[in-house]
Amino acid sequence: KSTVDKIAAGEVIERPASVVKELVENAIDAGANAVTVEIKEGGISFIRITDNGEGIPADQVPLAFLRHATSKIKKVEDLLSVASLGFRGEALSSIAAVCQVELITKTAGSITGCRYIIEGGQEKSQEEIGAPEGTTFLVRNLFFNTPARKKFLKSPMTEAGYISDIMERMALSHPEVSFKFINNNQTRLHTSGNTNLKDIIYGIYGRDIAGNLIEIKDFGSGGPVELKGFIGKPVISRGNRNYENYFINGRYIKSKIISKAIEDAYKTFMMQHKYPFTALHFTIDGSYLDVNVHPTKMELRFANNEEMYRFVYEAVKAGLTHREL
Ligand code: ADP
Ligand code: MG
């Protein structure tokens, strides 16, 4: 593959966790309700992701690895009104440019599956194969052809930690999907896909946190912004923002406005100056969001920052003061 492709790949794929994030998002977009992620050596030498989604038709497999090949939305403006997480059509081409990829996939309508191998952007083989419905990606030896970039990776333990963070966020953002994460043959996370967010919080953070939550139930229901989920009682606050999780339309994001509104409410009503635990799901009308797409990340802005701040502040206040929700 050309240098241009390798550079472009570098923008999307920084480390094993980027591969996992992109492939898990694809699995969710494919309608999977069970996704298994297995890694070895922090994902540097081995990542296997199996889903039970719709699969890729054999004749479209090579196309999916072309740059800007996407079967999803066509317009950036549609980005948030539709549910799909992918939008650039860059992930597979970027991953294939810097790894050794083996793909096994089968759609419901096809009798046989397809096995496809592509390494460093070079197609190696495509054959018919028996396979269950869904898709498995085997991604080996990240940056095998760009040793200079491989040097910037951290230790396998640290890289595995980044992947674990991604898996936890995926589980929290999609309670309806069963996720399994296996690191060096040990199961690290397993959610049932039973849609109960509290159970997932328990599985990830344990009893101390799951036992000290305040539920926010359908705040703003019927309006352009709806909020539900959990906020932590002050006893489980922390010295950093690591426990502040919130998701907009199923996507993990960071927002200064949202964080500030949450923290200000805790300060005012709990006299608490540390950072709270939150796991909040926002459903926001596309017209209420402003999207800015970079090569690697999507930056969200709100049509009206002040209104958004107010909304979040009031929701958290209601939770903390046990007013009607
Ligand atoms: P994007 O997600 O932005 O469309 P990707 O490069 O991530 O681009 O994927 C390219 C295409 O490959 C997707 O649009 C989809 O059609 C197909 N694809 C990728 N992964 C899967 C999967 N796990 N199941 C079904 N289709 C997939
Ligand atoms: Mg994608």
UniProtKB/TrEMBL annotation:
Span of domain DNA mismatch repair protein S5: 201-321
Described purpose of this protein according to its UniProt entry: This protein is involved in the repair of mismatches in DNA. It is required for dam-dependent methyl-directed DNA mismatch repair. May act as a 'molecular matchmaker', a protein that promotes the formation of a stable complex between two or more DNA-binding proteins in an ATP-dependent manner without itself being part of a final effector complex.
Sequence similarity: Belongs to the DNA mismatch repair MutL/HexB family.
This protein's name: DNA mismatch repair protein MutL
